[in-house]
From TrEMBL, chains A, B:
GO terms for molecular function: transaminase activity. The keyword Cell inner membrane does not apply. Pathway: Amino-acid biosynthesis. Belongs to the class-II pyridoxal-phosphate-dependent aminotransferase family. Histidinol-phosphate aminotransferase subfamily. It comes from Paracoccus pacificus. Gene3D superfamilies: Aspartate Aminotransferase, domain 1 (3.90.1150.10), Type I PLP-dependent aspartate aminotransferase-like (Major domain) (3.40.640.10). The keyword Thylakoid does not apply. This is Pyridoxal phosphate-dependent aminotransferase.
Length: 372, 372
């Protein structure tokens, strides 16, 4: 019996995954984490109004969601000061990035990103046969000028820039992005991943015409709105590009509960302001915890903080293992020299208490013989 | 300024969508439907335990869902009597079909389906550049023998068979599928879309080894479990094929609320039994309503009924328009001769009351001059 085979492109793909989930680590270690601070989730949670809207929508879950995402799209357009034709809604930025890569990249097309930036974007590029070119970070920042130079050198069709950046929490300014945009090669599209933009200073939010065909921006309800598990985000840009998503997206893909939650969350600007204040306070506290241990917290425009552990990646990895043994879930950048840091998400004080309590021992253990 | 362009394959795709949602029709007609009976949703709703689990999970929506879908996958494996390695969970059958097509089909590969079967499958095949071959229904049934003959003729890599079938509600038997499977060309994969299987008679559920590499089966929480809006379904088959999904799926794509709801729904076999009984009663009632109007309801193994309106597609379309004007959302098959029917979903009595009340007038209007 001849077994059905994968098509050549997927057949060539590895069986790797972009991320191991915290639940898998919990199953391996045989117990739940006491502090879940590794996935840049927002432990301050969704707006109570969003929770209520989602709980109410649960009883209506027998209905498919509106495939047009009409009400949310109109609300987002008003929120952004654009028209609904400039906006598309998707199942989180992960799905939007996958669809964008599918729209733009044929096998062998060149794509540029930063070395150590969002692995899921790379996963999508590999998945559609694109050729990835990676530009080093400069001083823990993504380097827009270098990204553009590389894009020109390799004839890229896509450039990825997260601003603010994950995993470092750093940001580049409007002015830097404007300069970079002018150096974008003709026919190349700039993806601005703005997942953390609600936590960023105004200078990090570029003033770009929404009709500029060279740029698409992506935002999410996963971070500032505390709805990562609901899977809903959006992209905005020139209508001709945005309409492209309708050619390939899973039209009934956004779940109805998330639609209701996102609509309620967007309307609750008071909760967003409170979350921003909570996150700013937690960032400061993570900075203080780092300092108490003789470490440096990097400046952050996100809801997480990269803490420089002062040694190499092996040391930071040992810190993470020791933290995990103590019930603290955190992560770290994957590439040197950023991997001298651990990355800790902001969260309520009781979670940060546990981190503060566990860190000194974890650092001590990491300084001893490697254990794994 | 040179505008970024789509890759050649998506550039060739039309801006059509597989379906217009009922909400879009409601916005056009300027009011909500009084009876929502057109999308094969299950108006008897999710298990109260699933609703409670989803409402509870809403407050935890700040956490991403488990990318391994571990607990649900294990529960499904126990439910199916297979191992977790035989199961993959996805964002509804729509997403699973998209990923399967992406796994199996390179541009120009041949795919066989029935003419008038699920349009979203065709959308995915077109979206990945496959060549679709359509086999006619025979006596309102998909025709497994003809599907296999066509697959052999065109050298297909994929054959799609929905059993029970949408849009006709008909089914083929285990015996017919076994015969067909033996005629499947070497290297070709049979997709059994079993979205409605929980409503089907035992003879419609084929006995196929889960390790048979020639078949993949897909099921969902959208229909019998009443959770269409939660977007969660699963596929099962040989582990080597199932593992392929990990190469391309959106690992964090299934929302946490749906995971919790599906787990609770699967455990509530009492509610499922009650839903089956409710649906059987509603099918009978739809048959009686049809008969009261001099029409014939086709036998159905699903939660909807195709009602033969006794004329052509134009007539049935006029019936639908008149029903819509009366606040009743229904749909119809897209291809002759099945398009002599309208397709009405099962629902609670108050919904069917409205349909029963509106149908005589709708038929009368359809018999007069076409209005649109």
């Amino acid at each position: 019996m001849e077994t059905p085979r994968f098509a050549p492109l997927p057949d060539s793909l590895p069986e790797t995954v972009p991320f191991t989930g915290p639940e898998a680590i919990e199953r391996r270690r045989g117990g739940a984490f006491a502090a879940r601070l590794g996935a840049n989730e927002n432990g301050f949670g969704p707006s109570p109004r969003a929770i209520a809207a989602m709980a109410e929508a649960a009883a209506e879950a027998w209905k498919y969601g509106d495939p047009d995402n009409h009400d949310l799209k109109f609300a987002l357009a008003a929120h952004l000061g654009v028209t609904p034709d400039h906006v598309t809604v998707g199942e989180g930025i992960d799905a939007l990035l996958g669809n964008l890569v599918r729209l733009m990249i044929a096998p062998g097309d060149a794509v540029v990103t930063s070395n150590g930036a969002y692995p899921t974007f790379n996963y999508h590029v590999n998945g559609f046969g694109g050729d990835l070119y990676r530009v080093p970070y400069r001083d823990d920042h993504e380097d827009p000028a270098a990204l553009m130079a590389e894009a020109a050198r390799v004839g890229a069709r896509l450039v990825y820039l997260a601003n603010p950046d994950n995993p470092m929490g750093s940001w580049v300014t409007d002015a830097e992005i404007q300069v970079a945009l002018n150096a974008l090669p003709p026919g190349c599209l700039l993806i601005l991943d703005e997942a953390y933009v609600e936590f960023a200073p105004p200078e990090a939010v570029p003033r770009i015409s929404v009709d500029d065909p060279r740029v698409i921006r992506m935002r999410t309800f996963s971070k500032a709105y505390g709805m990562a598990g609901a899977r809903i985000g959006y992209a905005f840009g020139a209508p001709a590009l945005i309409r492209g998503f309708d050619r390939i997206r899973n039209h009934f893909g956004v779940n109805r509960i998330a639609q209701a939650g996102a609509l309620a969350a967007l309307a609750d600007s008071g909760w967003l302001a409170q979350t921003r204040a909570n996150v700013a306070r937690a960032r400061n506290r993570l900075g203080a915890i780092a300092a108490d241990n003789g470490l440096t917290a990097l400046p952050s425009a996100t809801n997480f903080v990269a803490i420089d552990c002062g040694h190499d990646g092996d040391f930071a990895r040992r810190v993470l293992v020791a933290l995990s043994d103590a019930g603290i879930f955190a992560r770290m950048p994957g590439v040197a020299p950023m991997d001298r840091c651990i990355r800790v998400s902001c969260g309520p004080d009781d979670q940060l208490d546990l981190f503060a309590k566990a860190l000194p021992d974890a650092l001590r253990q990491a300084g001893q013989t490697p254990r794994r």
